[in-house]
Structure formats: structure tokens, C-alpha cells
Amino acid sequence: MINNYLSQTTKVMKSSLIRELVATTKNVPGLISFAGGFPSPATFPKDILSKLYGEVVAEEGRDVLQYGSSEGDNFLKSELLKWEGYGDLNQDNMIITVGATNAIYYMTRALIDEGDVILCEAPSFLGSLVAFDALGADVQGIPMDAEGLDLHKMMEKVKQLRENGKKIKFLYTIPDFQNPAGVSMSLARRHELLNYCEAEGILVMEDNPYSRLRFSGEVLPTLFRIAHEEMKNSYLVTEIISFSKILGPGMRVAYAKGDATLINKMVSWQQKVNVCPDCVTERVAAKFLAGGYMNPHIQSICDFYKPYLAKMLDSLSVNMPPYVQWTTPSGGIFIWLWLPEDMNADKLFFQAKEHLVTFIPGSKFYPEGQEKFNCLRLNYTYSSLEQIETGIERLAGLIKSIYA
Amino acid sequence: MINNYLSQTTKVMKSSLIRELVATTKNVPGLISFAGGFPSPATFPKDILSKLYGEVVAEEGRDVLQYGSSEGDNFLKSELLKWEGYGDLNQDNMIITVGATNAIYYMTRALIDEGDVILCEAPSFLGSLVAFDALGADVQGIPMDAEGLDLHKMMEKVKQLRENGKKIKFLYTIPDFQNPAGVSMSLARRHELLNYCEAEGILVMEDNPYSRLRFSGEVLPTLFRIAHEEMKNSYLVTEIISFSKILGPGMRVAYAKGDATLINKMVSWQQKVNVCPDCVTERVAAKFLAGGYMNPHIQSICDFYKPYLAKMLDSLSVNMPPYVQWTTPSGGIFIWLWLPEDMNADKLFFQAKEHLVTFIPGSKFYPEGQEKFNCLRLNYTYSSLEQIETGIERLAGLIKSIYA
């Protein structure tokens, strides 16, 4: 009945394939899952947060239980600018949102007309891909190499798209510990990419959920910081930072920094979509920063995850046959695995379930029609060390038995 | 620079005119404001909420700080179904959203293609009107009488729109203590309206932020309840209930009940827009219901507001000249005032500011091009009793001096 009333976009809209896949693995006894993208609940600072929630509502309830502003809590914004060390930015350059996906949605809504092109790494974050798709964008994936997005491939793609009369609005990129590939963009590539995008008039949406989760190696400047501090370009990059992996995703706190005009348009969308974020949670996040809890907490998360990454990389080295390859990230929460070209991870998924181990088939992370099938994503932050070892043994055994 | 990149919709999108108007009255010393739509902070149950927030995060932090489901917290849903007494509905008929505007946005997104018609009361809630507009709807207002939406006018409008080949998707209505008019739809009108909508295949979006704020008189069944219980129609009405006026708007909690297919599509949009609501706040709201706090709390809000409404109605009776008329609601937070036909409340707004009293000009609540100018909205929940008396004296004095 209702189907006759649905909008065209809604009729054809895809829901998360991952969700449906993961649902098929629910209630399988003994299954070891590397499928999720959830942080470990052991990392949630619930005692500090419990105290802050109680205090904020008791002491500032008249304020935080009232409507807030659509651009977000000023107190939180000023704490964020201090935390990140952007003394020269002001509050007009920032919006607080209900998680990072929310900021991605607003920015896409603000920029994309039906058929406009969004470039992205292929593979990329499925949540963004489905939102881009639902908003009518033409999403075009660009392969990565060990240094991140392949700039030459991007140049070719841009040339070809423009020859076909396409309007390219922005590049969506996750430069640090990319989801799903676990690749980080090299410093040289960051510079080359930004110079190219500036010259070609292609905006950049920098999705940054993981950069603080670095367990070793040198911290690289974000694209936003390079554009802002080195290139003195105030509009090129909009950076979206999530608190989901460094505080708790249930709180739904994220923010975007960028050009004041664009941020203002995102605020206009927030007025129409959510009115404002949860003001209690905004203030709690602000107090978490103001109390100096954030940096030690992030360090404790990194200390916590580091052995899990090491264990998974070690288990892969010990168990996988030589024709399987994988990325070796220094942080984040994912590892990407390449199978031989003629193996199909969509099929492997169902076989793996029989062998009590699961993952997300890589094809799910590509724009429609641009899929690769000989790849898969592994998460290492939601299983025990023992489960990681056993799960990788199972997966490697299965791959060897199929490919033998 | 960024302007060249904006989407067409975003370029022409209107921000809230009310917001800009209200901004012009900021920092005027001694100004009495009847402009806002904010609940009184004195009604926020901050001590109970402070305790619940602290407990929920301490005891259930591993759960509520994690990602939640896009359809909302099951515990909250089941408490809501119990609270409302809908034992025969199940969780598939409900979505939890980040405030009521968020539910309105999802439902509109799920149903409206560019140019589709949304019918609404004229005047109506501006937040919804701008969202409808931004989503490309053709918004058509229908006048009200003392019993609510004028059904004969609606029938004429539907006939005329269909003759012009227009596709009418749904009626947006606020049957209880309508914003801005303060009118409640009579029981007879509710039945007539629903029978008509069912016969004509026009869905109903019932926006219900105020029905629990009834200070006197008989509680009327919601449109959803009539459709569900009497008409046995499971798809006709989707009801959106906000906690903003009965708990605290800063918490951003609302929910929608309706046809499972439609709710599922709204969930798909929530996945792309917010992923899920704030899980901490969802669980706190659930505990507030489970603890039996809600009904006594609502009674205390009604007891608190009742004298403010009485004071404003009394002040209007005492001070206003006979050519000014107003609605006499039994609850909610607004009164609507009609000036003589040749008076313009947009102009009066600026004169009133000089006389240290403010309100929202009625024209701001009409779909574009369908404005009435001899009307205005008064809020009585955000001023003291003395301010209400003085403010209405000032406004009446000004009107008499202009019209004399």
C-alpha cells in the first residue's frame, strides 16, 4: 500500500548490504567475527563520562536540556579549537553534528545536484557511499597504492569525466588508516593531491575518524592542516572528525571544520534535519576535553589496541599462503586482504561462516558496478587475542583448502 | 568561492526567518518576549535526569556508549508502547529520531518527489514548512476554523490541485494545540477528516508535540489512535511525538509510529543521515518512563503552565480592543491573535520592539505566497506572570494607538 506513495529515490534506495550480511551470521555458535567496525567497549571511559553526565545535567540542566543552536555548542567548539591548536579559526568555521555520517550527509546535501560526481578511494567507507548514492551523486572510485589514493589514476579519471561533460564537485578521502583498506596517505602524496585539487578546482572532504589511533610511526598532518597552514587555502578542504572511535559512538558526536560559507549551509541543513545535536552530550564532550581527559584517554586506547593489531598481523604472517597479501597499518581498526585474482570473497564469506569465521567481502566497499571481488576487510578491535589467532587460522586453512 | 559549488537546492534554500527576526530583538534592555517556542527551564526534571544519566552510563556504559540500531533503542520503544497503551503494535511500527523535526524530515524524504503536494494547516509550524520546501514539495495551506482544519476548504483544494494534475502525497497536521494557532481539532472533525483522507488516498502526518500539555477539558484521541483502533487502518496516519515539551528539547528525543514499510524506509534514511540517535539519551528517556516519572512530571508541567495561560488570556481580555480576536486554547504553549484586516503584524513587530514587547508576525507561518499579515503568535511559557501582564498591556496600548 505505502509503496505507491514512496519517493523515487526511496523506492530504489539500497540499505546497508553489510548489515544484511552480518545479520546472516548472528546466532552462529562459536563464530569468530572480524566483520564489524565497532570499537571495543573496554575502551569506553564510562566512569569519567558517568560523572560528567551527572554533573552537567545537575549543574547546567537549565541550559543543556533547552534547545541548542544549530551550529553546535559554543563551549564545545572552543574546546575543540584549543585541543586541535587552531587559534586562528573561529566558531563560524565549525559545525557540531550527530556523528560523522551526519556531517558527510550535510556537506553532500549542500554541494551535490543529481548527477554531480564525487570521487573517492576504491574501496571506501560504505556508509558514505550509500549516502552519496541516495543523494543522487555519480560516485567514481579511484584505486589506491601503498601511499594512498593513486594520483595518476585520479588525473586520468578527472580528464575522462570532464570530457564526458561531468561536473566534479569533490573528492571524498580517508587519508589516515583508511576504511576499509587500512592504508595511510604518504606526506608527499598529500601535498601532490592538494596541489592538484586546488589547481583543478576540486574540493576535498576529508573524513578523519582514525588519525588519532596511531600506535606507532610519525603523525602526519591532515589534509585540512596542510591546506590551512601551508597553502593558506581556506576553502579547499573540509575535515570531518568523529568521536566514535576515541570516546564512544553511542554519543553521536562529530564535527566539521571548513569554509565559513559552506559550514553555514551545513548549519541550514542541520536546522531542517535535526534542529541541533544532543546538547547534554555536546556539553559532556566539552567537559571531557576541558578536563584534560582526552589525550591520556586516546593514549590508553592506542595502548589497548596495539597488541590486537600485532596479533592479527602476526597470525596472518604465520598462517596465510604466499598468494594472499594484506596491508600493514600502524593504527586504525582495519586490515585489508587481497586474495588471488580468481578467488571471490563473496563466495568465501558463506564458506567461512561454515568454518566459524566471518569478515566483510571487499566488493561491498566499492561504488556500484566498480567492484573488486578478490578482497576482504578484517577488523581486529572487537575480538580477543585468542579469537584473532584462531579466526585467522580458520580463514587461512579455508583459503588454502579452496585454492589447493 | 564556495558559492560556485553549492547544489541548486542549497543555493535557494531559506533559513529560518523567525531566527533572523528574533536576532534583531536580542540585547534590547527591558524587552518582554512572547516570540519564542521554548519550554520553561523551570519544568526540566534535572535532578531525576542527572541521576539517570549517571546511572545509565555507569551501569550500561558498554552498551549505551556503543553504536545503536538505526531504528532506535528497543528498550525505549517497548517502554513507549507500554506508556501509550499500544499492546498490539510492535517495534517495527516505531522509529526513534533525533527530535520531531528529524522524523518529519525522514518521512518527507521517504515520500516526496520534487513537486509533490503536501497539504497543511495555514498557518503551520515554520520548521516543517522550510523542511518541506527544501525537499522540493509544493506546500499548500488550508485555513482553519474553531474546530481545526477546514475540511470543506481542503476538499475544494484537493479537487483543484488534482484538476491541475498535481500529486498529493500527505496532509501535515498538528491536531492538538496547533503551532502557531493554539487551535485543537474537534472530535467530529477528526473523524470526518480521516474518513475523507482514507477515501481519497491522502496519507496523514500527525505532528504531536503538545497533546499531553492539556490543562483542562477532555483529552481527545489522536488521529493515529482513531485510525488504528476505530478504523482499523494501519497505514493512513503516521504520528510523530516529541519529548521536547514534556522532558527537555536539548535531549533531542522523538519517535514516530506508523506503517511498518514506511517506518522501515525512515530507518533507511536515518542510517544515512545520523546512523542512530544518541544511545545514552535514548536509554535515559527509557528509564524515565520505566521509573514511572513521566506522567507525574507531565502533570507538574501542566500545573506550572496553567496560570501563565490564564494570565495571558485574562490580560488580553482586559486590555485588547474589541476589533482584536484571539484563540483560547486549553493547553499547549501558543495563542494566536487576529488584528483588523488592514493591520500588518510585520510592521507592528518593529513598532512593538520600540515599545519593548515582541512576538512572531503571523505571516512567517504560512507557505510562501499564501501569507496573511493581520495576525501574530504569542508564547506564554517563557515569561513571568508580571511580564505577561505588562507585555500584553504594552501590545494592546500600541495597537490601540495605531488603530485609533
Describe the structure.
The structure is a homodimer of 404-residue chains. With 404 residues, chain A is of the alpha/beta class. Chain A is built from 14 helices and 15 strands. Chain A has helices at residues 8-12, 17-23, 46-64, 74-84, 100-111, 126-134, 151-163, 187-200, 223-230, 260-273, 279-290, 294-319, 345-354, 385-403; strands spanning 32-33, 94-97, 117-121, 138-142, 144-145, 148-149, 168-173, 203-208, 237-242, 254-257, 325-326, 334-338, 357-358, 360-361, 375-379. In chain A, the strands form four sheets. A seven-stranded mixed sheet of chain A has the order 2-10-9-8-7-3-4, sandwiched between helices. Chain A has a four-stranded antiparallel sheet with strand order 11-12-15-14. In chain A, strand 7, helix 8 and strand 8 (203-208) form a beta-alpha-beta unit. In chain A, helix 4 (74-84) packs parallel to helix 11. Chain A is globular, with a radius of gyration of 21 Å. The interface between A and B is large, with 78 and 78 residues.
